[in-house]
């Protein structure tokens, strides 16, 4: 009887060992003196220093069905950035600095070139945010994922001084809401996009060049625009910010109330900011209602910051691309967020 190997079952141990060695070189530039042990061990070691009364802050996220579009297009160079920045933006809203990041990849068949592209994107985003890509796991799971399919998740840990935590508790009626622009869908709403545009049945539309999206820009280019990190932008204004909301799934309607104290509400003026053309295109082509668009997508605001009205000029001087987009009001028993 011929002896059976793990490879016969669809798991390539040699390829796994090869990609581990390649990953070590990719993530090395993200490591500083705080990283005592990283990729290759059973666990990663990080020395926390420089804080008087630190509070650890953590978050986990994925990139949703944006993965389907990346797979359809065979483009994996930016999807790792999406993963890192989706996680990092969720911890900076409380004033935390990202310390280290870990990833989890689950694949049907291990394609080292794809994994390497994904990790390179993660490393690029981590380096830009001064965050160590400290470890991860790549699991080969034949039979659970079809060839070419995979899933990915990210985990970030940050820290903030206890007395510097932003929780929105100081927000009051009369405060101003400032919006930092998004560059597109980020990592939310892609199931609706694929369904509304019929991309699963006919992915050729992803290659259509659409002038209103920019010169030579295809629909696929616009949909794969990577989720940016806002950590560098918000660092200088943290001392005067009362609260921040990362505008992800649920849009302004569901994310802003997460930082509003009881008895307050927020009113947004949609004419105050530029809505990226990808949203207008989706609404027109798929006949999606305005209410649904604002309930699903970020609609052009990637991060909402709340500050005292007296601090607006100082914040806008630092955040040159930001705009005043709304105000905090007393909650009169209606919607917590209204968009006019």
Strand content: 15-25%
Coarse morphology: globular
Number of strands: 12
Mean pLDDT over all positions? 94
* Order of strands, widest sheet: 8-10-7-11-9-12
Instruction: Kindly provide the radius of gyration, computed on alpha-carbon positions and rounded to a whole number of angstroms.
Output: 21 Å
Which stretches of 5+ consecutive residues score pLDDT under 50? none
Short recap of the structure:
By secondary structure, this protein is α+β, with helices and mostly antiparallel strands. The protein is built from 11 helices and 12 strands.
Task: Walk me through the topology.
Elements: H1 13-27, E1 35-37, E2 45-46, E3 54-62, H2 66-73, H3 79-92, E4 97-107, H4 112-128, E5 132-140, E6 150-161, E7 176-181, H5 190-197, H6 219-223, H7 231-234, E8 241-246, H8 251-255, E9 264-268, H9 277-286, H10 290-296, E10 301-307, H11 312-318, E11 323-330, E12 337-339
Parallel strand pairs: 4-5, 9-12
Antiparallel strand pairs: 1-2, 3-6, 4-6, 7-10, 7-11, 8-10, 9-11
Helix pairs in contact: 1-4, 3-4
What would your notes on this structure say?
- This protein is of the alpha+beta class and 340 residues long.
- It contains 11 helices and 12 strands.
- The protein has helices spanning 13-27, 66-73, 79-92, 112-128, 190-197, 219-223, 231-234, 251-255, 277-286, 290-296, 312-318; strands spanning 35-37, 45-46, 54-62, 97-107, 132-140, 150-161, 176-181, 241-246, 264-268, 301-307, 323-330, 337-339.
- The strands form 3 sheets. Strands 8-10-7-11-9-12 form a 6-stranded mixed sheet. It has a 4-stranded mixed sheet with strand order 3-6-4-5, with helices on one face. A two-stranded antiparallel sheet has the order 1-2.
- Strand 4, helix 4 (112-128) and strand 5 form a beta-alpha-beta unit.
- Helix 3 (79-92) packs parallel to helix 4.
- The protein is globular and about 80 Å long.
- The N and C termini lie far apart (74 Å).
